[in-house]
Amino acid sequence: MRRRNGIPIGRERLMHQRQFLRVVVLGALLSASGWAGHSGQDKTNLAGLKKGIEVFESVLNQNLAKAFGGPFETLDRARGAYLPGYGVVFAFEVNLTPLEDLGPFAPAPTARDEQAERQEEVRRGMKAKGVAEEVLGSFGQTLGSLTPDESVTIVIHTVAAHPGKIERSTIVLSAPKKLVDERFSHLIDQTEFVRKLSTTEY
User: Fold this and answer.
1) Cβ proximity of 74 and 94 under 8 Å
2) Which H helix or E strand runs over 77?
3) Considering the entire predicted model, what is its pTM?
């Protein structure tokens, strides 16, 4: 009988078949439990949620256009997606580098220029974060079809161009549905809402 690593080839094939069947069965069970967990999200709710996502996208993009204005200051329009069991996630990208500092003919920056540029980048990053916080607090209720355990999250990608390198960073703001409802009902003000947001920066 032919062997491989001391194990008969026929037995090795049988072991592989059993492992494959275990994977298939486990995958089927996970899929079934996932479907059962989200079967309550009917077509009507999804249709309403889709409309709410579109409204939120529109408001967020309008506010970004007002805050930044220039055609290359927001590199990617805000788009949202629903993740069953988690909530809705929106993402957009902003340029932190002033346009006059870009291009092959820009003069070499002095130390003072670099310091001023860094300060401007911080200011723009805070502006993008402020826009996201304001829209989330004022218009999060447009996503009222979410379940109490789900959240609304905004991911802000930032890009800054420096000589010889590109720096990227990310800001993540997340509010559970309960917090969005409290803000909508005026149980808390915007300052308290922002304080309770889950914020991650890296």
Assistant:
1) yes
2) strand 74-83
3) 0.72
